[in-house]
Write a structure and sequence with these properties.
The complex is a heterodimer of chains A (272) and B (278). Chain A has 272 residues and is mainly α. Chain A is 80% helix and 0% strand. Classes of the chains: A mainly alpha (272), B mainly alpha (278).
């Protein structure tokens, strides 16, 4: 067990057991998930037909379908639950990026009411931060990390904003509005970086989903029809629909990686 | 990582044996126990009733009592959803509190001395208390007096701040509502950790799973190996859900315990203001 665990820990080292796959082209991901799954399903059907007699398989169908097939309902419930959760996570990631950009733009507008020196310094700091997020932090977020360069740039930008000394009522009202924008940007940045589930949780969800897919696929090996061809065809149809759902979940669960990643365009625009 | 050393080793509870196992060991124990239980039951029933005798009950059993299984399906998905919601709620509350702490940290660093050092020290004290003693206490659905006192000390520090410039005053106007929010966030986090439904839900799930597995023993199959093979897969599927629920039901203990990394990161950043990498 310890050797297996060590091997699995090594595989999980760079962001989860399945993290390497998301960096492949979408066609490769589809091929690995759906193609690999279908090979497993069809291979199992052929293997079961090699060891069990057709009569035995057909008899299993009669009892097995009404006795054990409710497992399919459980699987459907869990799959739907995971799909909704993955979709939600993807939508949240988009919303956090949008909120952060709105906060930064509002802050930039607020600063435009400050003295010219503050405006210039803040403008430079904002561009530096936006550039570092787009160029450095974005690739790192794919593995669930943040960039120390962006963190330092963000801190410098806030430092420039907070260095403004309000002297009259007008200045104070400007700062009050700016504070709201700061809170908005900090909250959105923290949420954007925290949106990734932890490595352990990611592995747990994927292993559980994979376990259920394997069990559901294997279950069908023990059912039989009069002809092997129709059994294989039905296995492929069922497997394709399940594995396509898994493929979609996989893409949605990785909002900052792969071909369907949310682009850093708003930050690039902000950086000019 | 170096930055996690001061808060490391504090996230795991010690009271329940299986909660000290790794994710794989927990999986093996729970699914293995279910498979063994099913195998023993299937073989025991076969000792007393022949396959032909059992097969007589297939029609009435399947048609009359078959609705037991959709109920089990409903129970398992319901309990899994509840456990997931509760786990995510805890994670969400922690994220909210750490965001508030980041806001306080960033603004506190802009005060003039000596307010800057005092506020940052009080903030570090609170972060350390939450990531340390309170984390352990939350594993037992409790809270820490140390964290309570650290929060009070933080509020007192802000209240007694020596504001020397208009910038300090502006920062204080910014920080006041954030400190109030920190108090709310802590209360919210502590509330989320007391999940009173955990035991009843686990009992309900356990009962449903045991009854459903046992129900399959009294059905007749053409061959014993077919019955055992399909029963093993069926049991593994059910026990996989039990495994998922068992792990998610304890957010501060076990293999999926929520780590205190976010607090360790904030503490590192407070104590290393130069922005050096860990």
């Amino acid at each position: 067990m310890s050797q297996v665990e060590a091997l699995l820990r090594d595989m999980a080292g760079s962001g989860g057991y399945f993290q390497w796959l998301i960096h492949q082209p979408m066609g490769v991901i589809l091929l690995v998930i759906v193609g690999g799954g279908l090979v497993f399903i069809v291979g199992g059907v052929l293997l079961a037909n090699n060891y069990l007699t057709p009569e035995e398989l057909i008899s299993n169908t009669l009892v097995g379908t009404f006795k054990f097939m409710f497992l399919a309902q459980i699987f459907t419930g869990v799959l739907a639950f995971i799909m909704v959760e993955a979709g939600n996570r993807y939508a949240n990631a988009e919303a956090y990026v949008d909120t952060e950009i709105r906060g930064l733009r509002l802050l930039s507008r607020v600063v435009s009411h400050m003295p010219l020196e503050n405006q210039t310094r803040f403008g430079d700091a904002l561009k530096e931060y936006a550039k570092s997020v787009a160029e450095t932090e974005w690739p790192m977020m794919a593995s669930g990390d943040d960039s120390p360069i962006s963190r330092a740039a963000f801190r410098r930008m806030l430092g420039v904003y907070f260095s403004f000394n309000p002297v009259d009522v007008s200045d104070r009202s400007v700062v009050a509005m700016g504070n709201l924008a700061v809170a908005m940007a900090v909250e959105a940045r923290t949420n954007r970086l925290n949106n990734n589930v932890s490595r352990e949780l990611s592995n747990f969800i994927w292993l559980s989903l994979l376990g259920l897919v394997v069990i559901t696929a294997m279950f069908n090996w023990f059912f039989g029809t009069r002809g092997l061809r129709s059994q294989v065809a039905m296995g492929i149809a069922l497997g394709s629909s399940i594995l396509t759902c898994v493929f979609i979940v996989f893409l949605l669960a990785n909002p900052f990686a792969g071909d369907t990643a949310i682009p850093p365009t708003p930050f690039l625009e902000l950086a000019g | 990582m170096v930055r996690h050393q001061r808060l490391s080793g504090l996230t795991r509870g010690r009271s329940v044996l299986w909660l000290n196992l790794s994710l794989w060991q927990t999986f093996a124990v729970i699914v293995g126990a279910g498979v063994v239980f099913n195998g023993i039951g299937t073989l025991l029933v076969a000792l007393f009733k022949s396959n032909a005798q059992l097969a007589h009950g297939n029609d009435p059993g399947g048609n009359k009592f078959g609705f037991l299984e959709p109920i089990t399906g409903l129970v398992t998905v319901f309990v899994l959803t509840m456990a997931w919601i509760q786990y995510n709620d805890v994670v969400g509350r922690i994220q909210r509190e750490t965001t508030t702490l980041v806001l306080l940290k960033e603004s506190a660093g802009q005060f003039t001395e000596p307010t800057r050092s005092r506020v940052l020290a009080a903030l570090a004290g609170y972060v350390e208390a939450v990531g340390g003693p309170e984390w352990r206490a939350m594993a037992a659905n409790g809270h820490s007096e140390v964290a309570e006192q650290a929060l009070e000390a933080l509020v007192r520090t802000y209240g007694a701040a020596d504001l020397r410039t208009s910038r300090d005053e502006s920062l204080m106007r910014f920080s006041g509502p954030v400190v109030r929010r920190l108090n709310d966030d802590r209360q919210g986090r502590l509330l989320a950790t007391t999940f009173e439904l955990r035991q009843p839900l686990l009992v309900m799930l356990g009962a449903a799973v045991v009854v459903t597995i046992a129900f399959s023993w009294v059905f007749g199959y053409p061959t014993m190996r077919g019955k055992l093979a399909m029963g093993t897969l069926f049991t593994s599927g059910l026990m996989l859900i039990v495994f998922m629920v068992s792990v998610l039901a304890h957010p501060f203990r076990g293999p999926l315990a929520v780590p205190n990394d976010a607090y360790a990161d904030i503490l590192w950043e407070i104590t290393h203001p130069e922005g050096e990498s860990p």
